[in-house]
Design brief:
Layout: H1 6-11, E1 13-20, E2 35-36, H2 38-49, E3 54-64, E4 67-77, E5 83-94, E6 100-107, E7 113-115
Parallel strand pairs: 1-6
Antiparallel strand pairs: 1-2, 3-4, 4-5, 5-6, 5-7
């Protein structure tokens, strides 16, 4: 994601994987069912990730079985140098081949912190 490599990011997912980012209804997913299948995940990338560089800072990880829960801060950087930071939890579940079956990101818009561009 941070490298901006759309095809590499899309390639980590199993065919029928779902991305819920955030979990539940949101401005990215009005119904809250997530982005399931290759076309939906590609549209998510094009709409949410591609417009501005996105970084996921991982503060801690807790693995169990085929899942890992990461304590994160999502950082969106804008062309003027400003950025938006959102704390959250990202839970990944993988299949036997190591492909991501689900990505569930828990974060709340009202927890976003905006940092203006340096002067």
């Amino acid at each position: 994601m941070e490298a901006g490599d759309r095809e590499a990011w899309l390639g980590i997912f199993a065919e029928d994987a779902v991305v819920q980012d955030p979990v539940g209804p949101s401005m990215f997913d009005e119904v809250g069912d997530g982005h399931r299948g290759p076309e939906a995940r590609a549209a998510f990338w094009d709409t949410v990730i591609a417009p501005n560089p996105v970084q996921m800072r991982i503060h801690a990880s807790y693995a169990g079985g085929d899942e890992v829960a990461n304590v994160i801060t999502i950082v969106n950087r804008f062309p003027d140098g400003s950025q938006a930071l959102v704390p959250g939890i990202a839970i990944y579940c993988v299949d036997a081949a190591g492909k991501v079956r689900s990505l569930r990101a828990f974060w709340e818009l009202d927890q976003m912190v905006f940092e203006p561009a340096p002067t």
